[in-house]
């Protein structure tokens, strides 16, 4: 079934390979920002700020990016964004080679990269229904999920290979290469559908953007289930980003001699478990409800909380957002 879809629709192959390249680069660059932030500052708080800079753009510009992506030529938008992101990440490498890289370069670079993601991600998702027939979408969505989660497993192990061959700064060089590959693959997607552009951007105003967002907000406020889903997801993102990712990295760096490598291994292991769980869930539950989602969220947060409590009892250091710690750039 899957092979038949890809055989009959070459656009699907280019789309999935583009997703793999783009996501792999995102994983690698995300690790680089975290590793370098801690290397430069040796501060849990400043490392946390870098993690926040990767999430904040989606809270600020996420809805705006979705509206804009719906108006313009999606293929051109994707190519333009990738072409812009290439010099941004390479600039960080260049600054590092001049021995001028500072913590705030990382914060600004991370924030900019993820601002572009606010426009790239919705446009990329919107192309899928355009390049597929209705009967193909279930299979392609399944393939997309497999590729996306597969990269979450592959990415950390690629980072281990890079850690043992090049400096962390060249994670960004690798990221730039994945953007080039993504541009080539997106360019090869053939789309004749007029739905690529809903209306010329020149005919739109900023007021139209906020009108669209207001309409969406009013609709969400009346949908109890959707609103609850959003609220719980925000909490889950908080625990995943600021407690799990940052806390785990700092704990491993302080308690092991090769914390960055162990961190990458655990992220890959975590991604593998997620894939297995996703494959097993349909075997036990044919339909998932909001209650099931809330239970899963509670169970996840409970496990994280138990880990924090055990760390405190063992007098191990954990990550908190509190008083800023002084830092100096390491030589």
Automatic annotation (TrEMBL):
This is MFS transporter. It is a multi-pass membrane protein. The chain crosses the membrane at residues 12-37, 43-65, 77-96, 102-122, 143-163, 169-189, 229-250, 262-285. It is found in: Cell membrane. It comes from the Bacteria. Keywords: Cell membrane, Membrane, Transmembrane, Transmembrane helix, Transport. GO terms for cellular component: plasma membrane. InterPro entries: MFS_trans_sf, TM_effector. It comes from Virgibacillus dokdonensis.
């Amino acid at each position: 079934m899957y092979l038949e879809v890809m055989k009959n629709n070459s656009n699907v192959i280019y789309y999935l390979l583009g997703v793999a390249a783009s996501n792999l680069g995102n994983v690698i660059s995300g690790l680089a920002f975290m590793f370098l932030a801690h290397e430069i500052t040796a501060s849990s708080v400043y490392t946390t700020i870098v993690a926040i800079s990767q999430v904040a753009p989606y809270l600020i510009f996420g809805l705006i990016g979705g509206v804009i992506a719906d108006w313009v030529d999606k293929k051109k938008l994707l190519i333009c964004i990738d072409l812009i992101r290439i010099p941004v990440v390479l600039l960080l490498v260049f600054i590092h080679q001049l021995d001028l890289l500072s913590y705030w370069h990382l914060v600004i670079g991370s924030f900019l990269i993820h601002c572009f993601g606010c426009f790239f991600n919705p446009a990329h998702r919107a192309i899928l229904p355009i390049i597929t027939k209705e009967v193909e979408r279930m299979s392609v969505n399944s393939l997309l999920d497999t590729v996306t989660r597969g990269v979450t497993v592959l990415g950390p192990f690629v980072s281990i290979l890079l850690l043992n061959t090049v400096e962390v700064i060249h994670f960004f060089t690798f990221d730039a290469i994945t953007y080039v590959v993504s541009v080539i693959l997106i360019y090869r997607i053939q789309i004749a559908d007029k739905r690529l552009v809903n209306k010329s951007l020149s005919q739109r105003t900023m007021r139209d953007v906020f009108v669209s967002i207001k309409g969406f907000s009013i609709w969400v406020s009346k949908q109890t289930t959707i609103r609850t889903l959003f609220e719980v997801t925000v909490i889950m993102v908080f625990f995943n980003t600021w407690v799990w990712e940052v806390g785990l990295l700092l704990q491993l760096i302080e308690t092991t001699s090769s914390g960055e490598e162990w961190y990458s291994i655990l992220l890959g292991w975590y991604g593998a478990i997620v894939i297995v769980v996703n494959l097993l869930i349909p075997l036990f539950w044919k339909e998932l409800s909001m209650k099931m989602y809330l239970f899963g969220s509670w169970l996840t947060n409970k496990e994280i909380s138990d880990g924090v409590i055990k760390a405190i009892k063992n007098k191990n250091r954990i990550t908190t957002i509190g008083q800023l710690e002084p830092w100096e750039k390491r030589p």
